[in-house]
Amino acid sequence: MANYVVTSAKPLSDKQKRDIISRLDATERTVAFLVDEALIGGIVISDGDKLLDASVKGKLNAAGRSAADSIANRPLEHIVSSLKEEFSHIEHTGVIQAGVVSSVSDGVIFAEGLSGAKVGELLLVGDDSLAMVMNLEEDDVGAILLTGVGKVGAGAPVRLTDRIVTVPVGEALIGRVVGALGDPIDGAGRIETEFFRRAESPAPGIFDRAKVSEPLCTGVKAVDAIVPIGKGQRELIIGDRQTGKTSLAIDAILAQKHTGVLCVYVAIGQKNSTVSEVIKRLRDSGAMAYTTVVSATASDSPTLQYVAPYTATAMAEELAYQGKDVLIVYDDLSKHAVAYRTISLLLRRPAGREAYPGDVFYVHSRLLERSAKLSKRLGGGSISALPIIETLASDISAYIPTNVISITDGQIFLDTELFRSGVRPAVNVGLSVSRVGGSAQPNAIRSVVKGLKLDLARYRDMAVFTEFGADVDEETKAVLDRGAKLTELLIQPQGAPYTMAEEAAEIYLTSGDKLTNIPKGQVMSALQRVLSYIRSAHPDLLKSIAETGELTEENKAELDVAFTEATRE
Length: 569
Ligand code: ATP
Ligand code: MG
Fold this sequence. Notes:
This protein has 17 helices and 20 strands. By secondary structure, the chain is of the alpha/beta class. It folds into four domains: 1-94, no CATH class; 96-165, Elongation Factor Tu (Ef-tu), domain 3 (Beta Barrel), CATH 2.40.30.20; 174-184 and 211-441, Rossmann fold, CATH 3.40.50.300; 452-568, ATP synthase alpha/beta chain, C-terminal domain (Lysin, Up-down Bundle), CATH 1.20.150.20. Helix 15 (523-537) packs across helix 16 (539-548). The longest helix is centred in the last third of the chain and has 24 residues, at 443-466. Magnesium ion is lined by residues 245-246, 331.
């Protein structure tokens, strides 16, 4: 039989020792007495395999565990009340630190008496408001209010909670419209999910990633042909205001309808009317069935606008780590940068270039680094990101645009001039690049797109000369003529994404001299005619291209025949 060991916080008197020995059934055992100040108070008795813990330290640990259990896995609405409950209980022990709000301005608070605060920690402010710690100063901490903006005043009590912002995630979020903290705002009731994730979490490391090699078709010809995107890639959409940035991203979401790719659209700092227009477009075309919308509009506080994209990424991550492919659209990160600038200036951080704080690059890089193709070990899911940036007067060398260009794997540059002249989507073929997507382009498209790119490049070079009204020879004329027709090929109405097979077929139909006899201005309608002829007279052709992902010699021959038949009438 094992002997007893009695550990106490302070040395015990002889009487206390006798008392303990008489209570233990210790006739055949010895009892050893030890002192351990770490117990704070009380005693711990062990007999080798059993342990009776009556120490203050043990009680505190148990209370901490029960607080953690009741907070994890609870919907957001319950977190605040449970925090209140748990911490009012523990407060008597003096373990949880409490401070007081010393000043408030536009969702940013400063609080004193919280020397143990950590950056990113959640604070309980007043009765039920939550704030997130941003600044640690010598005498106070700066935090941003996530709830209760406008309600909290100076003098309100603040408590540390030792947790960071978590948001509801999981499949229950699909089809829903939620606010910046994952709270439902679509009037469709509570979100029933057991899963929660930290809004901010580290990006997958080098060995957690796989090569971007599968195509993510956007259904937009100009993008899939010239700047192809792969699953796990981050491709920036950049352009002035009203150049079709949102429309391009929404078309990419619509194109995922039958592909199994899930989508997250996060609206940051936009007008309420614009966001409701987007939601309506997604609903009307059935895309809400696989999409989550996270919205922090211009009327929400800058603090919520700042948090929204991280929340949306957490939602995308949950799905990606289940092995699914996710497309996330950040619309847009310029407004996110502005929200962060507002917060930073209110937090009295030093202003840097264009008054943005020095760490705005890190704010965006740690967000976009979370989009990746995951390795097989992690389930092989992916997050592809389409961040949007708005430029002023097409200046892509401003601070925020250059930052995000350098973080992403390429950019789709939308040109105001092209947009005005009717080339929509206004993709500037010369300035747009995709740094990894080439290897992820479907073979069917890759095999036909080379000539297209080359002809468009030659057209761009020569078009410059004709601006001066120079006389041109026959050969140049032919290049210009073909270039103008190919530009027409890339024009596409909004809300009508193509399938990969349709894109490959259409691009093939512009090869060789097939366009020669079609007059300028009629290329689009002619090609549409051919496509609908193919759908009725050669129904299996597009199916076979879609299934194999290749454009075989037989497919090409059949396309040639269809073209002749359709244009003969
Ligand atoms: P903002 O800067 O205000 O966010 P934006 O760059 O996101 O604008 P959109 O809102 O997508 O631009 O589009 C601007 C206008 O252009 C809309 O009226 C839209 O209908 C139109 N548009 C966009 N794409 C096309 C297209 N491919 N064909 C025709 N019209 C288009
Ligand atoms: Mg927009």
